[in-house]
Amino acid sequence: MSKLHVGYVRQAIEERFGSGLIDISDQSRLSENSQHQAFLSRGLAALATQIEHPCSDRVAAARVFDGQDDQGLDAIAVEVNTVRSRICLVQAKWSDENKGKFGEAEVHKMFHGLDLILERNFGRFNRRFQPFIPDIERAYETGTPKITLVLALMRDAPLSDGVRELIKMKQAEQNQVEQMVEVKILDLRDFHRAILGDAAAPKINAKVQLECFGQESTPYKAIYGTMTVPDLADLYEEHPRGLFARNIRDSLDESDVNLKIRRTLRDEPEHFWYFSNGITMLCETIKPVGRALPGKVGHFQLNGVSVVNGAQTVSAIHRAFKEDPVAAQDGRVLVRLISLEHCPPGFGDQVTTTTNTQNPIEDRDFKSLDQGQLNLRDAFALKLNRIYVLKRGEAIPTPEHGCSMTEAAEALAAANSNAQLAAIAKRDQHLAGLWEDDNYQEVFGAEPNVYRVWRCVELLRAVRAQLHALREGLVWRADAAAFYGDLLVTHIVYRRLSTRSIDDPEFDWSAEVAKVPDLVRDTLFWVLHAIDEEYGTSSHIIAAVRNTERIERVVRAALRGLDSERQAPPLSANYQVAQAETRGRRINAVSTLIAAHRIPNGAVLEYRPYSKPERREMAAWLAEDSRRAQATWSDEGGRYPLQWHVDKEWYSPSGLARRMRHEAAGVDSAVQGTLRWFVPGEGSLDELALAVRLAEGNEPTED
């Protein structure tokens, strides 16, 4: 594609975001041309978020946080959903020459930024990122979100093999336990198509053969029947991009679904028709070629055809056929062709949306018919006077009045002697692994005891409540351990309680539950200590709680510590708000920095909330006015080196941080401001002062 098409994209970015929507104030010292290049790159990032998560130009522009401390990422979009939330992270590379560079260094930066987000180390990100943190945390609360890393590249040449392999390797590391991270590439073709809409999409005309076809004529025309794998593979071979004009993205995602499709076509192709949900195609028109009798073989001319559901199936069929045409040739798949010729406006988009959002039948749905579950439901009602919900879609009772089968499965998995079940439960928000027959039997047993089930649910709730309370004072890895490690901690707590009589209706379970608060605190500290000791302080907390081998090692190490009756190892000051505040007060950071002339006069500093309560209370307030999170530094200010951009008055870092929180949330409490004010690209005032002290050979002491 030529520079002409690059020009179309540039023009669209300038028209959509050129009225001041894209913030480039941090580029003011650069040349006019460099500022415009930065604007185009950020505009490309905004456009990418619109493609992935449609929104207005103003909202798309606000999603861009490119600049110092962007941690290798340029834009973000968060969609909180009760089914599965989505987080889209964009890295954009603009090029007037259509040669947007993306090498191995960019890959490492991008995945480093993702690691920081997963570990909840939000303080590393700049002020433009901060408003999105509450949404990210809400997305985490709904279960494991789907995270899409988008490479928005102004180029049409493919990435080098080395870069693609590195991306796949990094992606595989994130997806060791669950398919959580996908990588998509948006190039010049995609941006050009997004800008011009249907006019930019290549119009695909094709002739297809359907076996045993049937048809619908009211209210709209549709044909359905069976296509062979070779025919579908040939169709994809001829139109690899245009066939998916409505939803095509260049994805590097080697998903479990694709692997299963290819395995079926290789090992049992005759079963493929029964295992596949089929393919849906939209067509501008459908015309029979020759005589077409329903129930027989029919040939049809399709004009303006596009696959809107089953794109993974089609691409996997093509790959399987290329790998082993002899085995795959016996595969067949159900295909629906829907004509838009006489449909109302927008009907095609409705079909695309609804066919991709229907809830599939899951193993859990079959387990709800198990006699043991039916007996458990009756026992809840008769023995406990509570409700036990079996089926998806039924109203969940209030906590005191009962629970669902899903919550019971989670609780029993955590309380099982096999720690691996807790890891399996954490891999998928729908507990897919627990519904597999062997795991299901191990979790519930042949005849689940109603008292054990309910008491395990009570224990899990008590542990989660205590972890939630502890998280208010935790940051970074400790916060992540308390959030992701709920089932791991519950497993260890259960093993520390007296549970021999848990099945006995007369057992005083409340006395055991009363031990939970102290046990949870000590257990969490030992768990984090074990993870850091076993796998290092840069290891993924998620991996420790979802990997079956790692969780067993962590459990053994934590139990050794707890059984030794030694005091739980104290958390690092970096992990606790109170400890960090105390450490910060040991250094008179302001006087240290001024004496060393560490920060140039006129430098603009950023405020970043430090704790979870602060983020909750201040995020919206800070987002309302960008000046609130900015202050100018001056050595001449002495004890009051910060000039707040809101009122132009001078403050100490702690005094200003205290005033800001009071204005935002009415909370008037002392805080260590040097932990919250950052020199972009360098670190917090606390970190910079500590570095100065250490460079001078001075240990941080009380001033």
Q: What is the percent of helical residues?
A: 40-55%
State the distance separating the first and last CA atoms. 65 Å
Structural class: alpha+beta
Largest sheet: 7 strands, mixed
Report low-confidence residues grouped into runs of 5 or more. 248-254
Layout of secondary structure:
Elements: H1 3-17, H2 32-52, H3 57-62, E1 75-79, E2 86-93, H4 104-118, H5 133-141, E3 146-153, H6 161-174, E4 181-186, H7 188-196, E5 205-216, E6 222-228, H8 229-238, E7 250-251, H9 256-267, H10 272-275, E8 279-283, E9 285-288, E10 298-303, E11 306-309, H11 311-323, H12 325-328, E12 332-339, H13 347-355, H14 363-367, H15 371-383, E13 387-389, E14 402-404, H16 405-415, H17 420-426, H18 437-444, H19 450-471, H20 476-484, H21 486-496, H22 509-513, H23 516-535, H24 541-546, H25 548-563, H26 577-585, H27 589-595, E15 604-607, H28 612-624, E16 630-633, E17 642-644, E18 650-651, H29 653-665, E19 677-679, E20 683-684, H30 685-695
Parallel strand pairs: 2-3, 3-4, 8-12, 13-14
Antiparallel strand pairs: 1-2, 4-7, 5-6, 5-10, 6-12, 8-11, 9-10, 15-16, 15-19, 16-17, 17-18, 19-20
Structural overview:
The strands form 4 sheets. This protein has a 7-stranded mixed sheet, sandwiched between helices. The chain is flat, with a radius of gyration of 29 Å. With 703 residues, it is an alpha+beta fold. It contains 30 helices and 20 strands.
